[in-house]
TrEMBL record:
This is Transporter. GO terms for cellular component: membrane. InterPro entries: Na/ntran_symport, SNS_sf, YocR/YhdH-like. It comes from Natrarchaeobaculum sulfurireducens. Keywords: Membrane, Plasmid, Symport, Transmembrane, Transmembrane helix, Transport.
Amino acid sequence: MSNESAKTARAEWGTRFGFLMAMIGAMVGVGNIWRFPFVTGENGGGAFILAFLILLFLIMIPGLIAEVALGRYAGKGVIGSIREATGSGTAVGLGLIVIIVNIALMSYYSPVIGWTLYYMLHSFMFTFTGAEFEAGAFLGDLFADPLTMFALHTVVMGLIAAILYLGITKGVERVVVYAVPALVIALAAIAIRALTLPGASEGLAFTFNVEWEFLLMASTWQEALAQALFSTGLGWGIAITVGSYLREYDDVPLGGGVFTAVGEASIGVLAAFAIFPLVFAFGVDPATGAGLTFEALPQVFMEMSAGGLWAIVFFTGFFLAAITSGLVITEVGVTTVAEETRLSRGKAVLAVCGLIWLIGIPSAYSPDILEFGDDTFALWGLPLATIAILIAVGWFMGPEKLRVLSVNQNSGIYVGRWWNVAVKYVVPVVMAAIMVAFAIDFYGADIMIAGMVVIVLVPIVSFAVMKYVEGNREAPTTAEPTGGDD
């Protein structure tokens, strides 16, 4: 089959709304409601949010535009798109870096989706408005029950496999167009009630007062970088994959870059309004860790009129948004495996979901392992994967070529040559500087050692595997790269 015929047969998003909701769906739930609150609480509140917003607009918009544009230009999954940028050869290993990081991240995110499923089921039993309900004990009982955690992880990966089996428009798009709006409505209602509780003003002060000394800490910037990458999906291969299903007349800069970044910032602020007033109103430690959201949020429903119903709306929306993130994250591996092997889509779904389920078992059994995995792959793996993509675009393909042929194609916002400089120099240098500063500050610590293992080992494995694979490909289907253009 020729390249052109392969492109013609490829599925597309049915509507622009479906594409935008897929981009938003990949970040809402993962980035904002679960991870954003506890890393904010651990890193100085308002100072962390300021660093997060700076990096969101400095790095994420140019990066997301690059990923979506590359995906639409190539019309392929991560490895196929990277091959389109670099040409066949060992450098295609840049794409495998992204896939490895993506699967590692999804392996510990699946158990978190399981937590949302558990809370959703209990919302239908009106557990959170019962007279005997105690949020900390409820979460502690769940974490102390590894069999239930394992079962939830298994159910989640089974659901994801079933939905992905249906395909991109029948499966993913039908879920995201309802899940994301429902969650935002419920979150807004909770924020309104939370702001009226005694002590809410302390939560707002914690969230928006900037303690400037935190901005001098490398850890604040490294965590903010990881959060921005985690929230927007940059470096996961999500934007490449979602962009590969984008229709040629859709707008890359507006939808893929600006809309996603602005949407992320807006949902983040809304989540802050909802969660931190609750944290202070109910005396929860802001530095509780990964369980912060699950300990703080359920306490508001007893204070709300028709709280039981609001709990159902919120946790149903939270679960749907969380599993939407899981769907889009897993689709990255499925699309690539289906394209790069002889497996059918159905077999690719089973292979990828089975691998994630297997790797995720330790995180399902232990929240401590889950947190260590998050520290390792969010802090180090995501920046590594993002830099890998930017190297492919900035130094192999050349940003000017992509800017002319894909970024500004049918665009409502013209992207100038500043973007070339940002993708090739500014974004990689800023990210590398933050990582180096963090490594120096935490020299010899477990988190630094684990990060160095990821930084060194993942590229070595990726380049070795792709050197072998590319050397044995029977008939390369892509043109060799034309080289840099600026």
